[in-house]
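Researcher: Let's walk through a ligand-bound prediction step by step. First, I give you the protein sequence. Second, the SMILES string for adenosine-5'-triphosphate. Third, you return the three-dimensional complex as structure tokens. Ready?
Model: Ready.
Researcher: Here are steps one and two:
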Amino acid sequence: MTHALQIHGLEAGYSGQPVLRALDLEVTAGVTAILGPSGCGKTTLLRAVAGFVTPMAGTITVAGREVVSGRSVVAARRRGLGYVPQDGALFPHLTVEANVGFGLPRGQRRNSARVSEALALVELPAKLAQRYPHELSGGQQQRVALARALAPRPRLVLLDEPFSSLDASLREETGRAVVRALRAAGAAAVLVTHDQGEALSLADQVAVMVDGSFLQVAAPADVYLTPADPRVAAFLGHAALVAGTAAGEPDADGRVRSASCALGLLRLRAPVAAGPVRVAIRAEQVQVAPADESDRAGVVLDVSFYGHDATIRVVLDSGEHVSARTPANSVPRPGDPVRVDVVGEAVAFAV
Ligand SMILES: Nc1ncnc2c1ncn2[C@@H]1O[C@H](COP(=O)(O)OP(=O)(O)OP(=O)(O)O)[C@@H](O)[C@H]1O
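Model: Step three, the predicted complex:
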């Protein structure tokens, strides 16, 4: 099967200033989330694929057809892909049915069978077809926007932060419904988001972008558990990075599986070269307990109470900070001396 999307050596930006640098990406099927901090270039990438930004270099191929190659650029409306913007951008004066029909080529806009099919894909009841956008909830509006994008049966749909205006519970439910609809339609999707939970829970592949480059493109569990770069670890799951030294019995490649740092001797998930490292430690791996002067590792800086649990920030005696996630019934107070234990393996990066 041809790729839904292939990007090679893409450079794009504004007024001659590059934002995206030498990007490569392949999407075969399923959902690929582009995840990264604000301003890193996620929307610029989506716009370049959609045809709203003309790249300075590189190629973009959609469903086997080159849409950008050197100076040759296919117009946005001829790229055969669906686009769902942040706020859905439905036409307020058109009914749901007419909005969805608008996604079809000019002569087929009144093809009610295809419109009904698209509404069924996004699990919207047929009785909503005659309503206007202002008579729908935010989640329903986003589903109509997706139905409009899916109506002409594209191989690829681009979703630009489509759930950001929805509240937390609706966001999760709408996200799952959107992924079900994409799978049912057999369309691949590129989802731009800065919400890690959304990217990890909805996507089959996560591309982590920082400063216009991908630091890692891999399955959600891989980017989370085996980050390829300390910036991926720090961004995903807000891992603390602590200075350490990797040492121990070397393997056949001369690499070692443990590191000592302010939190003691830690076992590493993957071997690294012996020597100075930065160790990434996630809040869910850290346990704090009351301590006296003999076994303290630091003091509690502050506590964020969430009801189901609490996040405790600790200043280690080394001056470094780590966070711990703790059951809500055993929360220490700021200033309390604590012992800090790390559960499971850590990830280390050579420096
Ligand atoms: N039309 C424009 N003209 C000039 N610069 C722009 C334009 N649009 C975006 N930029 C700049 O390009 C960079 C990347 O912006 P982009 O919108 O792609 O980031 P993003 O990752 O989508 O951010 P966010 O998550 O905040 O939406 C930013 O520095 C931004 O200021």
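Researcher: And what stands out?
Model: The radius of gyration is 24 Å. The pocket of adenosine-5'-triphosphate is lined by residues 14, 19, 36, 38-44, 194 (CB under 6 Å).
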